[in-house]
Design brief:
Helices cover 45% and strands 14% of the residues. The chain is an alpha/beta fold. The strands form three sheets. The protein has a five-stranded mixed beta barrel with strand order 1-3-4-5-6. Helix 7 packs antiparallel against helix 8 and helix 17 crosses helix 18. The chain is rod-shaped.
C-alpha cells in the first residue's frame, strides 16, 4: 500500500548509472506478485520509495526480498479502495525489483523499488496471502543514438520541468540538481514522467505510449500546458498581491490613526458605534428591522470616519433608533371622561363628537382595531384643527399636526432616497419620531390644498398609501427603506371643501361635515371660551370685565358675518 499521496514532489532517488538495455528483459515468470499503489505510477528505469501500509503488501515485499524475486506494480483507479481487484487497477504497470526495505522511526515500512520494464495486466489469480496474477511484457522501443528529434524533445522536457519546479509553490533545488545530472535522456524522460506533479490519469497515458519517443512528445505537450497554467497563476497572484499590498497599507494607516485617537481619548467612531449598540439593545422593534440595523452597523464599522459616507450612514441609523417602533400609548376608553374632555373645549359639533365616541366604544369591545381615517370638512374658523387636538386629549394620545397647504413635492410625504445629498425622511415618519408613539392622532391640515401632478411627483397620490387602511400597515418611506406600521395611527384630515380633493383620496376617508354655528351656539361659544381667553390675553384680571349675552348677541349680529369664530374673536379683543 502506498501511503505517500504527495504527488507534487520529485523523488530524489535517481542514482542509477549504466546501460538501460540491461534493465529490460523479454521473459518474466508466468505468475508474479502484484503490488497495488495509491496515486503513484512506476515507470521503467525509475527508482522510487513506496510507503507500505497494507498487511498483504508488507508480506509481499518481505517474501520478494527474501527470494530476490521481481514483482509487478500497478496503480489503483480508486485510491480509497482497500482490497482492489483486476478491474480496480490500471492495465499498464511495470515490473520492479526491491532494492531495500527500511523501517522508519515511526515504525512504518518503506520499500525502495526500481522499475524494470512495462507490463500489461492479464489476470489476477489470487489475493492470499497477497495479490498475484499474470502479466505480459510490453516491449520498450528505445530511440537510436542518432535520433536528434528525441534528443531535442528530451532537452526541452528537462528545461520545462526545471522551470515548472522553480515556479511551484514550494521550489525544490534538489530536484533541479537531479535533473541536470541525469546523463541518459531515456532515463530522464522516465524520471520526469514518474515524478511530474500531474494527475494519475495523465501519467497512465504516458506509460501506455508504445515508444519512448512518443512518450517524450506527449510529455512535452503536458509540460507546456502546465507551464502556461503556472505562468497565468503567477500573473494573477502578482496582480492580486499588488491590490492586497494597497489594502494592507490603507489598513495599517487606519490602525495607526485609530491608535493615535485612542491615545488622545478614544476614537469618535468607536464612541458613536458603542452608543448606537447600547440604544439598539433597549429598542423594541420587529425582527426584520433588527437584522437591517445589524447589517447597517457592520457597514458603519467598515466605513472610514473621515469620509462623507460615514455621516450619511450615522444619520440614517440615528433616524432608525429615533423612531417609536412598536411603542404605543394606552388609550382612554372611559366614555364619560372622553365626553367631558370633548365638551370642555368645544361647544356643539355633536356629530363629530358622536363619531369619536363610537370609535372608542368599538375599541373597548374589540380591544384592538385599525384606526379610522376621518376628514373634517367645513368653512374656515369653525374649529376643525382645534377639535383634533381635543380628540387627542380625550383619547390620551400624542398629537401631531402637519400642514399640507401648497405641498408640491412627493418626497415631503415619502422621503428622499439616501443616495441624495441632504436626504431626510418624509413628514409622516418625522411626525412619528417627534410624537414618540406609533399610535398618535395625526392631523393632515388643509388636505384640499395639496398640489397635484408637478414635475416633482404627485403628493396627493403619495397620500393614498398613508390613508388606505388596507395598505398603511406596511408604509414604505424611501429614506428608512423599511416597512412601518401606520394602522394604529388615527389620521384626521381637515379641508374647507371636497371639490379639490382627488376622488381616490376622498374615497379612502370618512367625511364628517363641520357646519357653521347658529346664533345661540355663537353666543355660548363666545361666553364660555372666547371672552375668558381674551380677558387673559389682554392682561385684565379675572372678573375685571363683564359682558352680557345681549351685548355679545349685538356684536355677533351687527359686526360679524361668518360661519366660524375668528372674526368674532377679533371683535371681542
Amino acid at each position: 500500500m502506498n501511503r505517500n499521496d504527495n504527488t507534487n514532489r520529485f523523488s530524489l532517488v535517481a542514482d542509477y548509472e549504466g546501460s538501460i538495455e540491461g534493465l529490460f528483459k523479454t521473459e518474466i515468470p508466468e505468475v508474479m506478485p502484484i503490488l497495488p499503489l495509491r496515486n503513484m505510477v512506476l515507470f521503467p528505469t525509475v527508482i522510487m520509495p513506496v510507503a507500505i501500509g497494507r498487511k498483504s503488501s508488507l508480506k509481499l515485499i518481505r517474501a520478494a526480498e527474501a527470494a530476490k524475486a521481481e514483482i509487478t506494480v500497478y496503480c489503483q483507479k480508486e485510491p480509497e479502495k482497500e482490497n482492489p481487484g483486476k478491474d480496480d487497477l490500471h492495465p499498464f504497470g511495470a515490473t520492479a525489483r526491491i532494492l531495500k526495505i527500511i523501517t522508519m522511526p515511526d515504525h512504518s515500512t518503506t520499500a525502495i523499488i526500481q522499475g524494470l520494464q512495462r507490463v500489461k495486466l492479464e489476470s489476477v489469480d489470487t489475493d492470499t496471502p497477497y495479490m498475484q496474477g499474470r502479466s505480459v511484457v510490453v516491449p520498450e522501443i528505445l530511440p537510436s543514438n542518432r535520433n536528434m528529434e528525441f534528443k531535442a524533445a528530451a532537452d526541452s522536457c528537462k528545461d520545462m520541468a526545471i522551470k515548472l519546479l522553480e515556479m511551484s509553490d514550494v521550489p525544490t533545488p534538489e530536484a533541479s540538481f537531479t535533473l541536470n545530472n541525469i546523463p541518459n535522456k531515456v532515463f530522464m524522460i522516465e524520471f520526469i514522467c514518474s515524478n511530474l506533479p500531474i494527475d494519475v490519469i495523465e501519467k497512465q497515458m504516458l506509460l501506455s505510449e508504445p515508444t519512448v519517443e512518443k512518450r517524450s512528445m506527449r510529455l512535452l505537450s503536458i509540460l507546456s500546458h502546465h507551464l502556461q497554467l503556472a505562468e497565468l497563476r503567477n500573473e494573477i497572484q502578482r496582480k492580486t498581491h499588488q491590490e492586497i499590498d494597497k489594502q494592507q497599507r490603507e489598513y495599517f494607516l487606519q490602525q495607526q490613526m485609530k491608535s493615535i485617537q485612542d491615545e488622545l481619548g478614544g476614537s469618535v467612531q468607536d464612541q458613536d458605534i458603542r452608543d448606537l449598540k447600547q440604544k439598539a439593545a433597549k429598542k423594541k422593534w420587529p425582527e426584520a428591522v433588527a437584522k437591517a440595523f445589524d447589517k447597517e452597523i457592520s457597514k458603519l464599522e467598515r466605513t472610514n470616519a473621515q469620509t462623507p459616507d460615514y455621516n450619511v450612514q450615522l444619520s440614517y441609523m440615528q433616524t432608525l433608533l429615533g423612531l417609536p417602533w412598536e411603542e404605543y400609548t394606552k388609550d382612554n376608553l372611559d366614555m364619560k371622561s372622553a365626553q367631558k374632555a370633548l365638551d370642555k373645549d368645544h361647544y356643539g359639533l355633536e356629530k363629530v363628537k358622536e363619531r369619536i365616541l363610537e370609535h372608542l366604544a368599538v375599541m373597548k369591545l374589540r380591544g384592538d382595531m385599525k384606526s379610522p381615517i376621518l376628514c373634517l370638512v367645513g368653512p374656515p374658523g369653525v374649529g376643525k384643527t382645534s377639535l383634533c387636538a381635543s380628540i387627542a386629549k380625550a383619547l390620551k394620545r400624542k398629537y401631531v399636526r402637519v400642514s399640507l397647504g401648497g405641498l408640491h413635492d412627493e418626497a415631503v410625504i415619502r422621503g428622499h432616497r439616501r443616495t441624495y445629498i441632504g436626504a431626510m425622511p418624509g413628514r409622516i415618519i418625522k411626525g412619528l419620531a417627534k410624537a414618540g408613539s406609533s399610535n398618535p392622532v395625526f392631523v393632515l391640515d388643509e388636505i384640499d390644498k395639496v398640489t397635484q401632478m408637478t414635475h416633482q411627483g404627485d403628493p396627493s397620490s403619495a397620500l393614498l398609501e398613508v390613508l388606505d387602511p388596507e395598505q398603511n400597515s406596511a408604509f414604505h418611506d424611501n429614506y428608512i427603506d423599511l416597512d412601518y406600521d401606520l394602522s394604529k395611527v388615527m389620521f384626521i384630515a381637515t379641508a374647507n371643501s371636497t371639490q379639490t380633493i382627488p376622488a381616490p383620496l376622498l374615497d379612502r376617508m370618512e367625511l364628517i361635515e363641520v357646519n357653521g354655528y347658529i346664533t345661540e351656539e355663537k353666543i355660548e361659544i363666545a361666553t364660555r371660551h372666547l371672552l375668558p381667553k381674551e380677558i387673559i390675553e389682554n392682561g385684565i384680571r379675572k372678573g375685571g370685565v363683564k359682558m352680557s349675552k345681549k351685548t355679545i348677541e349685538a356684536l355677533i349680529e351687527g359686526y360679524t358675518r361668518e360661519w366660524g369664530v375668528r372674526q368674532r374673536d377679533k371683535e371681542i379683543s
